């Protein structure tokens, strides 16, 4: 692996993809693991469990994310990092049993004014190559907010909206969030340290990871048989806390599959569309 450098630099990592992370994800989400020896490659978004950065403990900041020798680096001190959305395009099969290389760089930094205050959006590009071809092309939108920004509150007393036929539901417990953090080597404390999430960042509970919600949308589409879609565009539109459940749904339309995540009260927390390049 090349040593992580400052923003603008390309950070590269190569490894042999082993079956372990895919099997661990299957067990965590109770989803079918495809044939890892002879199959068509890993399902959409399963690359998130491979080619992970391993920052030095000494480089972690107070929120558990690295503050130096990392891409992206936070745009300033005392910022609150969130995963805001992104786009993932599968351009070929990513297979276990073969080496793969990921190249990462910051594509753009944009300052915006949101309802909740100033927002710095950092678009991070990841390209994964295997066998001489780019097989996964991804943009991750990471947002940084000042510590003084207004935080959402959890709606109280709203009626429960039960899961319907075809919904894909997860019980979001601290153990699920902890195991997802461990599988992605993500030490961000908002997902497992309730005291920190409440007292320092001001959230009413542990936050459900953005990638976990995106994965739920992709898995809902896979379970619904909306097969073959290779491009996912998604946004995390509102924080989802650990006591609020996670219910994903995917519905195939004429040009694309619409997908979303809601909490047990019906509040939408993520939206996405899946499409094939050819449709
Ligand atoms: C993103 C928040 C702060 C915007 O907050 P807001 O409501 O203040 O924004 P807004 O007023 O709706 O929009 C302002 C501007 O931002 C843009 N915008 C607005 N939303 C997005 C988006 N998603 N992606 C890209 N752009 C976005 C929007 O289009 C607009 O741009 P414009 O002025 O040009 O029109 C707010 O919607 C929010 O809190 N979303 C939920 C975030 C969340 O819960 N993420 C998952 C948990 S954090 C996590 O998983 C972390 C992890 C894994 O540990 C890790 O660090 O990597």
Automatic annotation (TrEMBL):
SUPFAM superfamilies per record: Thioesterase/thiol ester dehydrase-isomerase (SSF54637)
The entry's keywords: Lyase
EC number: 4.2.1.153
Annotated GO MF terms: (3R)-hydroxyacyl-[acyl-carrier-protein] dehydratase activity
All copies of domain FAS1-like dehydratase, residue ranges: 65-137
Organism superkingdom: Bacteria
Enzyme class: lyase
Pfam family, any one: FAS1_DH_region
Protein name (Swiss-Prot/TrEMBL): 3-methylfumaryl-CoA hydratase
UniProt source species: Amycolatopsis endophytica
């Amino acid at each position: 692996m090349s040593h992580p450098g400052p923003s603008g630099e390309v950070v590269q990592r190569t490894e042999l993809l082993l079956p372990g992370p895919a099997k661990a994800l299957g067990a965590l989400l109770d989803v079918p693991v495809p044939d890892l020896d002879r199959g068509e490659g890993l399902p959409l978004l399963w690359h998130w469990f491979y080619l992970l950065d391993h920052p030095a403990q000494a480089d972690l900041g107070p929120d558990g994310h690295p503050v130096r020798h990392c891409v992206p680096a936070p745009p300033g001190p005392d910022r609150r990092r969130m995963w805001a959305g992104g786009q993932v395009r599968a351009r070929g099969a990513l297979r276990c049993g073969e080496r793969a290389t990921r190249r990462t760089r910051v594509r753009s930094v944009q300052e915006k004014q949101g309802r909740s205050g100033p927002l710095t959006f950092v678009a991070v590009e990841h390209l994964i190559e295997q066998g001489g071809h780019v097989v996964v092309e991804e943009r991750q939108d990471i947002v940084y907010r000042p510590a003084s920004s207004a935080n959402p509150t959890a709606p109280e007393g709203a009626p429960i909206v039960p899961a319907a036929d075809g919904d894909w539901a997860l019980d979001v417990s601290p153990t699920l969030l902890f195991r997802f953090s461990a599988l992605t080597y993500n030490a961000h404390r908002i997902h497992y340290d309730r005291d920190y999430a409440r007292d320092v960042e001001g959230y009413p509970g542990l936050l459900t990871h953005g990638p976990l919600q995106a994965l739920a949308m992709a898995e809902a589409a896979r379970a619904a048989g909306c097969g073959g879609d290779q491009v996912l565009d998604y946004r995390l539109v509102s924080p989802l806390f650990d006591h609020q459940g996670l219910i994903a749904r995917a519905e195939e339309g004429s040009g694309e599959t619409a997908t979303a995540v809601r909490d047990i009260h019906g509040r939408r927390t993520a939206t996405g569309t899946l499409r094939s390049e050819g449709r």
